[in-house]
Amino acid sequence: MSDLSELSRDLIAVRDSRDRAAFGRLFDHFAPRIKAMMLRGGLRDGTAEDVVQDVMLAVWHKAGQFDPHRADAAGWIYGIARNRRIDMARRRPLAQPDEMPELESLEPDADQIIALQQEARHLAEALARLAPEQVEALRAAYFDDVPHSGISEMTGLPLGTIKSRIRLGLERLRHELKKIAP
Question: Which keywords annotate this record (predicted)?
Protein backbone atom coordinates (compact mmCIF):
# COMPACT_ATOMS: atom_id res chain seq x y z
CA MET A 1 0.00 0.00 0.00
CA SER A 2 3.04 2.26 0.32
CA ASP A 3 3.40 2.44 -3.48
CA LEU A 4 -0.05 4.09 -3.79
CA SER A 5 -0.48 7.83 -4.15
CA GLU A 6 -1.71 9.85 -1.21
CA LEU A 7 -5.01 10.40 -3.04
CA SER A 8 -5.46 6.66 -3.55
CA ARG A 9 -4.70 6.05 0.14
CA ASP A 10 -7.33 8.66 1.07
CA LEU A 11 -9.88 6.99 -1.21
CA ILE A 12 -9.11 3.60 0.36
CA ALA A 13 -9.64 5.19 3.80
CA VAL A 14 -13.04 6.42 2.62
CA ARG A 15 -13.79 2.99 1.17
CA ASP A 16 -12.70 0.96 4.17
CA SER A 17 -13.56 3.15 7.16
CA ARG A 18 -15.74 6.02 5.82
CA ASP A 19 -12.96 8.43 6.87
CA ARG A 20 -14.44 11.94 6.66
CA ALA A 21 -11.07 13.70 6.93
CA ALA A 22 -9.76 11.68 3.96
CA PHE A 23 -12.90 12.51 2.02
CA GLY A 24 -12.40 16.20 2.86
CA ARG A 25 -8.89 16.06 1.40
CA LEU A 26 -10.23 14.36 -1.74
CA PHE A 27 -12.97 16.97 -2.03
CA ASP A 28 -10.52 19.86 -1.59
CA HIS A 29 -8.24 18.41 -4.23
CA PHE A 30 -10.74 17.30 -6.87
CA ALA A 31 -13.66 19.76 -6.59
CA PRO A 32 -11.91 22.75 -8.25
CA ARG A 33 -10.36 20.52 -10.90
CA ILE A 34 -13.66 18.86 -11.77
CA LYS A 35 -15.37 22.25 -11.88
CA ALA A 36 -12.72 23.53 -14.31
CA MET A 37 -13.17 20.37 -16.39
CA MET A 38 -16.93 20.95 -16.54
CA LEU A 39 -16.54 24.64 -17.42
CA ARG A 40 -14.14 23.74 -20.24
CA GLY A 41 -16.76 21.23 -21.37
CA GLY A 42 -19.28 24.05 -21.83
CA LEU A 43 -21.31 23.94 -18.64
CA ARG A 44 -22.29 27.15 -16.92
CA ASP A 45 -20.85 27.98 -13.50
CA GLY A 46 -23.91 26.89 -11.46
CA THR A 47 -24.37 23.69 -13.43
CA ALA A 48 -20.68 22.87 -13.14
CA GLU A 49 -20.90 23.23 -9.36
CA ASP A 50 -23.93 20.92 -9.30
CA VAL A 51 -21.97 18.30 -11.24
CA VAL A 52 -19.05 18.63 -8.79
CA GLN A 53 -21.40 17.99 -5.88
CA ASP A 54 -22.95 15.03 -7.68
CA VAL A 55 -19.54 13.54 -8.55
CA MET A 56 -18.18 13.90 -5.04
CA LEU A 57 -21.37 12.41 -3.59
CA ALA A 58 -20.91 9.46 -5.96
CA VAL A 59 -17.30 9.14 -4.76
CA TRP A 60 -18.56 8.88 -1.17
CA HIS A 61 -21.25 6.34 -2.00
CA LYS A 62 -19.29 4.27 -4.52
CA ALA A 63 -15.94 4.26 -2.73
CA GLY A 64 -16.51 0.56 -2.07
CA GLN A 65 -16.09 -0.07 -5.80
CA PHE A 66 -12.63 1.53 -5.93
CA ASP A 67 -9.87 -0.94 -6.77
CA PRO A 68 -6.38 0.62 -6.60
CA HIS A 69 -5.03 -2.21 -8.78
CA ARG A 70 -7.26 -1.18 -11.70
CA ALA A 71 -6.90 2.62 -11.50
CA ASP A 72 -5.51 5.29 -9.27
CA ALA A 73 -7.83 7.64 -7.39
CA ALA A 74 -7.55 10.45 -9.93
CA GLY A 75 -8.42 8.21 -12.87
CA TRP A 76 -11.34 6.67 -11.02
CA ILE A 77 -12.79 10.03 -9.89
CA TYR A 78 -12.25 11.73 -13.25
CA GLY A 79 -13.98 8.75 -14.86
CA ILE A 80 -17.04 9.39 -12.69
CA ALA A 81 -16.92 13.09 -13.61
CA ARG A 82 -16.62 12.31 -17.31
CA ASN A 83 -19.58 9.96 -17.14
CA ARG A 84 -21.69 12.58 -15.32
CA ARG A 85 -20.84 15.11 -18.02
CA ILE A 86 -21.90 12.67 -20.73
CA ASP A 87 -25.13 11.91 -18.85
CA MET A 88 -25.92 15.63 -18.65
CA ALA A 89 -25.29 16.08 -22.36
CA ARG A 90 -27.64 13.20 -23.15
CA ARG A 91 -30.41 14.59 -20.94
CA ARG A 92 -30.25 18.02 -22.55
CA PRO A 93 -32.96 18.41 -25.21
CA LEU A 94 -31.73 18.86 -28.74
CA ALA A 95 -32.03 22.38 -30.04
CA GLN A 96 -34.73 22.78 -32.64
CA PRO A 97 -33.75 24.84 -35.66
CA ASP A 98 -35.63 28.08 -36.14
CA GLU A 99 -37.76 28.58 -39.18
CA MET A 100 -35.53 29.59 -42.04
CA PRO A 101 -36.80 32.70 -43.76
CA GLU A 102 -37.06 32.42 -47.48
CA LEU A 103 -33.97 33.95 -49.04
CA GLU A 104 -34.28 36.79 -51.43
CA SER A 105 -32.91 36.24 -54.86
CA LEU A 106 -29.14 36.45 -55.04
CA GLU A 107 -29.39 37.94 -58.49
CA PRO A 108 -28.64 41.67 -58.46
CA ASP A 109 -31.53 43.92 -59.34
CA ALA A 110 -31.35 46.68 -61.94
CA ASP A 111 -30.48 49.39 -59.38
CA GLN A 112 -27.56 47.36 -58.05
CA ILE A 113 -26.26 46.70 -61.55
CA ILE A 114 -26.40 50.39 -62.47
CA ALA A 115 -24.71 51.38 -59.17
CA LEU A 116 -21.91 48.88 -59.73
CA GLN A 117 -21.41 50.06 -63.30
CA GLN A 118 -21.19 53.68 -62.11
CA GLU A 119 -18.69 52.78 -59.39
CA ALA A 120 -16.55 50.89 -61.92
CA ARG A 121 -16.65 53.86 -64.29
CA HIS A 122 -15.68 56.28 -61.49
CA LEU A 123 -12.78 54.02 -60.50
CA ALA A 124 -11.57 53.75 -64.10
CA GLU A 125 -11.71 57.56 -64.48
CA ALA A 126 -9.80 58.06 -61.23
CA LEU A 127 -7.17 55.47 -62.22
CA ALA A 128 -6.73 57.23 -65.58
CA ARG A 129 -5.66 60.41 -63.74
CA LEU A 130 -2.89 58.66 -61.79
CA ALA A 131 0.74 58.40 -62.86
CA PRO A 132 1.29 55.26 -65.00
CA GLU A 133 3.81 53.77 -62.52
CA GLN A 134 1.26 54.15 -59.71
CA VAL A 135 -1.47 52.50 -61.80
CA GLU A 136 0.88 49.64 -62.66
CA ALA A 137 1.77 49.08 -58.98
CA LEU A 138 -1.89 49.29 -57.85
CA ARG A 139 -3.09 46.90 -60.56
CA ALA A 140 -0.41 44.35 -59.70
CA ALA A 141 -1.05 44.61 -55.94
CA TYR A 142 -4.86 44.77 -55.88
CA PHE A 143 -6.15 43.34 -59.15
CA ASP A 144 -3.52 40.64 -59.76
CA ASP A 145 -2.92 40.01 -56.00
CA VAL A 146 0.87 40.12 -56.39
CA PRO A 147 2.74 40.75 -53.11
CA HIS A 148 4.84 43.88 -52.89
CA SER A 149 8.05 41.83 -53.00
CA GLY A 150 6.80 40.14 -56.18
CA ILE A 151 6.16 43.50 -57.82
CA SER A 152 9.66 44.57 -56.81
CA GLU A 153 11.12 41.45 -58.43
CA MET A 154 9.02 41.88 -61.61
CA THR A 155 9.96 45.53 -62.09
CA GLY A 156 13.49 45.42 -60.71
CA LEU A 157 12.68 48.39 -58.46
CA PRO A 158 13.47 48.51 -54.73
CA LEU A 159 10.70 47.31 -52.40
CA GLY A 160 10.51 50.76 -50.75
CA THR A 161 9.82 52.37 -54.13
CA ILE A 162 7.00 49.91 -54.84
CA LYS A 163 5.45 50.55 -51.43
CA SER A 164 5.70 54.30 -51.91
CA ARG A 165 4.06 54.12 -55.32
CA ILE A 166 1.20 52.05 -53.93
CA ARG A 167 0.73 54.33 -50.90
CA LEU A 168 0.85 57.51 -52.98
CA GLY A 169 -1.40 55.96 -55.63
CA LEU A 170 -3.99 55.01 -52.99
CA GLU A 171 -3.92 58.50 -51.47
CA ARG A 172 -4.38 60.11 -54.89
CA LEU A 173 -7.09 57.60 -55.81
CA ARG A 174 -8.95 58.35 -52.56
CA HIS A 175 -8.73 62.07 -53.32
CA GLU A 176 -9.95 61.58 -56.92
CA LEU A 177 -12.87 59.40 -55.85
CA LYS A 178 -13.98 61.96 -53.25
CA LYS A 179 -14.30 64.54 -56.03
CA ILE A 180 -16.37 62.17 -58.20
CA ALA A 181 -18.63 60.69 -55.51
CA PRO A 182 -22.05 62.34 -55.22
Answer: Sigma factor, Transcription, Transcription regulation
User: Got the DSSP string for 98-135?
Assistant: PPPPPPPPSS--HHHHHHHHHHHHHHHHHHHTS-HHHH
CA separation (Å) from 78 to 10, 155, 163, 167, 182? 15, 63, 57, 58, 66
Cβ proximity of 7 and 74 under 8 Å: yes
CATH of 1-94, one of 3.40.30.10, 1.10.630.10, 3.10.50.40, 1.10.1740.10: 1.10.1740.10
pLDDT, one tens digit per residue, over 27-49 is: 999 999 999 988 888 888 788 89
Closest CA to 54 of 91, 19, 17: 91
Provide the whole-model pTM.
0.50
pLDDT digits (tens, 9 = 90+) for 165-179: 999 999 988 888 887
